[in-house]
Amino acid sequence: MNDKLRIKFWGVRGSYPAPGAGTIRYGGNTSCVEISAGGRTIILDAGTGIIPLGRELMQRKRPLELMLLFSHLHHDHTQGFPFFIPAYVPNTDLHIFGPGGTPETVKHVLEHNQSAETFPLSLRDMASTKQIESVRESQVIVWDEENVRVVGSDSGLSSEAVVIRIHKSYAHPGGVYVYRISWRGKSVVYATDTEGYVGMDRKLVAFARDADVLIHDAQYSEEHYRGMLAGFPSTQGYGHSTAMMAAEVAASAETGELVLFHHDPAYPDDWVAAQEAAAKNLFPDSCAAFEGMEIALSQRELDRMDVKYVKND
Description:
CATH architecture: 4-Layer Sandwich
Largest sheet: 8 strands, mixed
Number of helices: 6
Order of helices and strands: EEEHEEHEEEEEEHEHHEHEEE
Low-confidence stretches: 305-313
Strand content: 25-35%
Radius of gyration: 18 Å
CATH superfamily: Ribonuclease Z/Hydroxyacylglutathione hydrolase-like
């Protein structure tokens, strides 16, 4: 069994896809991150980045068992799911979790997204075996040698279990789940679509404490956020952070590395690079996510993989 927890970024933009010459370096697909832990594959969000990920997974030519975690159910985090090829394959097992007021909320949203009025193929037409469940913040998702299940606590679990804890952020309209994925003493926190405000989200800081990697929303520059950028209105209250807000959380939580995520689709590559530079001033171990970027964690040491921009044909 591979002893490394690996992270790969397939979509790093927010709001809507942004293809074009100005987004070549960081990529234009919307949110999708792949986590590999002990042979298990966990997918965070199903923006358009899940489409090339699905093609890559099909190259493995074996039955697939996958977990998909939705941070929330806004369109830019679900829009790639109808085009996710493994979901149409009968020998694929999909465990799908996300937020909702009832256990059926995620399923109902996915069904609506693929209703006859909006898409030619329904959720039922996807031939994979699907477990779809809305979970609560107080619950823990466990994937161990036996199965995938939702439990009330993380006590008494195998050291080989992948354990996923949940923190609900209320800074984004409708609320967003922040996930902490842990395996063999290594942990990754995925905090997209959250807004720092003044003084940070102290509950998020506590939730992310000592994480090896913090993936944090950093959609806007400080000038854009405060309405001081020509041509752009203030975005305070929109539920998204700046690079400095993300860096403040990483510094306060003493995380190993900060990955800036959910870049504004209007920002060309040089603007995203400027966000990265700003974050480094406060938290030196910061980087801006780009499509194809990989990070490997082993023995609580972080090794940046030598991966450049990967074009997904």
